[in-house]
Amino acid sequence: MKKTILYTFTLFCPALLQAQTNTDVLLLDMSGKKTEIILSNPQNITNHLGYDSQPHFHRSQPIMYYSSANADGKMDIRTYNLSTKQTADFTTTPENEFSPTLTPDGKHISAIIQRENGQQDLGMYNIDSKAVTVLIDNLTVGYHAWIDNKNLLLFILAEDGHELQHYNLDTKQNKVLAKSIGRSLHKIPGQNAMSFIDKSDKEQWLIKRYDTKTGAITTIAPTINQREDITWTSKGTLLSSDGAKLYSFSPAKDKNWQEVKVQGNPALLKGITRMAVNQANNKLAVVISE
Questions:
Q1: What is the pairing mode between strands 238-241 and 262-263?
Q2: Tally of helices (H runs) and strands (E runs) in the chain
Q3: Matching InterPro entries, A to Z (predicted)?
């Protein structure tokens, strides 16, 4: 347990995050036909000194959720309204909250809750009342993605490294699927499948597909230069970055990653890490260095 808690603090402790890097969230317009992607009009929508990261769009509302450091260095969840261009606090708690994610029912935001003792639980906040429910408190959860209302894909900090686990909320059973994984966990649009990053080969990281019905794990594509942050468009195209440029990959037609041109001020794109696409497929959020 001591080893796990120490590792957890290294991964998420706000003081360490601020010491390492300050980040902002950049919002871009996205257009194009079929698998073509055109990005334009990059705008810094957080423009706040400190940590702003882990963007996530609501499926049906013009709201983006993200994790943000407050004046005391604690991580809260904040919202950005794409229609009004207004920012607001979603949580203001003594704990740190990371990885805000809309639940499948659309009524809650699930998040990693880091306690003062270093424990990391998975909880969810009612969007209207902000009431919190703890979902998982017996595992050290680093990242998560919803398979359906009762099943989750989890990045677990274990004694011997990072594990990919399939967790059922009803039975409380967890199954280890892989080890040495990255932080990007996503549902693949239109499929009964999830994607994750396999980092077991130190020379070549791979984006892999987990079939949630059969349990089969197959390879989709190599990552870009050992970059673990990806996202999916609603049309089934992958987006990633080498840190300075953005690239797309359509598993149905591409053999290699294709550079995506950015119209406007591409100089804003520096130190790119996490990213997210909205359901309408017309907005891309990317995390950049300040």
A1: unpaired
A2: 2, 25
A3: 6-blade_b-propeller_TolB-like, WD40
Query: What's at 41, amino acid-wise?
Result: N
Domain boundaries, the chain: 2-182+260-289
Cα–Cα distance, 1 to 3 (Å, whole number): 5
DSSP designation for 266:
G
For the residues 103-111, what does the mean pLDDT come to?
98
- How far apart are the C-alpha atoms of 289 and 161, rounded to whole Å? 27
Task: Convert the pLDDT of each residue in 262-279 to its tens digit.
Answer: 999 888 999 999 999 999
Instruction: List the Cα angle 274/286/229 in 5-degree steps.
Output: 25
Please state, in angstroms and rounded to a whole number, the distance separating the CA atoms of residues 96 and 109: 14
Measured from the Cβ of residue 258, the count of other Cβ atoms closer than 10 Å reads 16
Q: Which two tokens stand for residue 271?
A: 């130190």
In CATH, which of 3.30.930.10, 2.120.10.30, 2.50.20.10, 3.90.79.10 is domain 2-182+260-289?
A: 2.120.10.30
Q: In the structure, what pLDDT confidence band is assigned to residue 33 with cuts at 50, 70 and 90?
A: confident
User: What is the DSSP code string of 101-142?
Assistant: EE-TTSSEEEEEEE-TTS-EEEEEEETTT--EEEEE-SS-EE
Q: What is the pTM of this model?
A: 0.92
Q: What is the pLDDT of residues 198-222, one digit of tens each?
A: 999 999 999 999 999 999 999 999 9
